[in-house]
Amino acid sequence: MLAPSxxxxxxxxxxxxxxxxxxxxxxxxxxxxRNVNMVAGLEWPGGDPFLQRQNEPSIAASTRNPMHLLGxxxxxxxxxxxxxxxxxxxEIGDAWLxxxxxxxxxxxxxxxxxxxxxxxxxxxxxxxxxxxxxxxxDPVVRAGTNGLVYYAGLxxxxxxNERLKGVDRARSLRLILDHAGAxxxxxxxxxxxxxxxQTLEQLIVTVVAAAGLRYSDIDVVIRTGGSSQIVxxxxxxxxxxxxxxxxxxxxxxxxxxxxxxxYYGY
Length: 266
Description:
There is one protein chain. This protein has 266 residues and is α+β, with helices and mostly antiparallel strands. Among the domains are: 54-157, no CATH class; 192-263, no CATH class. Helix content is 35%, strand content 18%. Strands 1-2-3-4 form a four-stranded antiparallel beta sheet, with no helix packed on it. Helix 7 links the parallel strand 7 (221-223) and strand 8 (245-247). The longest helix has 23 residues, at 4-26. It is globular.
C-alpha cells in the first residue's frame, strides 16, 4: 500500500498533467485556411468547362475516418449540354446532383455528377434507378455508422410537372401513372390503398392508446416521408387529428432519419 504522502504527490502530478492537457486542447482551436475550389478542371463531367454554378450544398464526414468527406449540391455544369426530352419537345439542359469527394479533410476535391444524368453513357449510369429523368436536385448527405454515408435527392421531369399544373387529382394521378407506364386508374389506385389505410388507422389507435393518451391530447402531427404525401394518408390524419396536422421536410427528413437510425444501430 502506498504511503499517504506518496499517494497525494501522485494524485497532484496526475491533476497537473490533466490540467496541462486541457489547456493544450483549448489552445488548439480551428483556424480557417485558404478557400478551396471544389469544382475545378475543364474535362466534363469531372470538371466544369462552362463555369456554371453549384448551390444548396450538403456535406458529411465519415464516421470511420473524419478526413474523408462526401458532399452534394445542385450542380448546373450540364445546363449548356442539350438533351432531348422527347421526340417532340426539343432540347434543353438541366440541373443534376453534384458529387464531391475529399480524402484529406477538404484540402483537395474530386467532383462529378451522380451517375444517371441524362448524358451519362456509362453502364453504371444507365443502370441507375434515376436514369431517364431529366433533372435532379435537393441533395441531403448524412453520415451513418462504420463509414457509411447516405446521399438522397430528388429526380424528376419538369415537362411532366408542367403538365400537372391546373388539373384535378384524378387527372394528375392519371398523368403520373401514364408517365411511369403503369396501367391503373385513380379508382383502382384508391382501391389498392384500402387495406393499407385500415392498417395505418389501427396503428394510430394502438400507438395513441399505448401512450395512455386520447386524440385530443395530441398537439401536433408532423407528416414526413414520401408516403405522407398520398392524399388518402393526409385525409386519414386530418380525420383523426383535425387542424393539428402539418408537414416538415417530407423527403429530406428520411435521409436524416436513416442516419440517426444507423448511428443508434436500429
